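User: I'm preparing a small set of examples for a lab meeting where we compare how different chains pack in three dimensions. I only have the primary sequence for this one, and I'd like the structure in token form so I can line it up with the others. Please keep the answer compact; I'll paste it straight into my notes.
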Amino acid sequence: MQPLRHIFLATLIALTFGVATADAATDPNLLCHKTVVKQLEKYKKTHLKLYRNCIDKQNRNLIPGPCLDTTSTAKLALTEDKVAAAITKKCTPTILNALGYRSDCAYSAATPGVGGTCAALPVGTASEFAACMMCWKGAEFSRFIGTIYASHATETCGSALDDTSASCSAVGCTSPLPTQRDLGDSAENDCQRGMAKASLNYLLKREKILDKCMLTGLSYSQCLADPKAQLQLAKAETQKQTLITKFCTNYTPVADPPFCCRTSPGQTCMVALDRADCVDNVGGTVAEGRTCELGTCENIPGPNKSLTWWEHCPINQPCPGPTLGDIDGLIQCVDDVADQLVGNVLCLQFPNGAACPTPAVPTPTVTPTP
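Assistant: Understood. Below is the structure token output for the 370-residue chain.
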């Protein structure tokens, strides 16, 4: 009789567990929440990928810009429609309210720029709710693009990089503003492309790791302290740092890197106020990474090269904060900006998860194993 009792108990446990699992799988609130998180991940991935591909091509003079171009804008709009449709399929206003989402779109201050646009959006339907989420998240992602692609910050966010920007959340400390220009098919652009790829991959991985953790019911702070999540986050950090170091060895972030205005097929040069003055007024060509010394373009001595980027991390408080100085300073700045952004968007997606860090919780820069 003892074996039969064991079989009965095992069957009862299996049936009970199966019912619990089935209940969790069919819980409309949980299904809705998972759908919101999953679909907004799709929106994020598409948004960042389109901007990255567009600016990379523009830098290499493969397309004229500005970004996004017409084709990319249409692709992003199509993704937005698909995301809204998928959320509408699994969510209703009642369920969204039960999950803790607001009955309006005022998730942050109605600033004169995109913040005011997003805050004024209606959320009477699940589709409107999706548009609200994508508006706030899109403003954060555009800010990240404008930060990472510093030489295209005003193209991405407009001439105003504060809370009056029509497309980006406030970038922050932006003085001195990096020279706004296409980098060309150059070694500097190779560094920019590698750094951007590593930074965007890190952003995607960090949010996905914490999304998955918080969907289990843990809060933001609990997930940051979760051993499994910590291992995954540390791995993502190491991968980012390794890739940036690979492409940007001996590069220093400089807002206005040196150049030489060459005025003949040789190395004859004239001093110009800026690159536009060289081309438009002097009639010369710009030779990057050189200086005009006694009428001749000369290479800058030493191994260090310049990347057109922020000299102070835009999220420093108070401004301007310490000078970044080298590529390690840039990597730490990317960490700080990405970690702050992820905290902001998790605050949107998990209204009951205490996901609004103040200040942002940065990821310490680690030294990768050779």
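A couple of notes for your slides: The mean pLDDT is 90. The chain has two domains: 26-254+308-349, 259-299.

User: Perfect, thanks.
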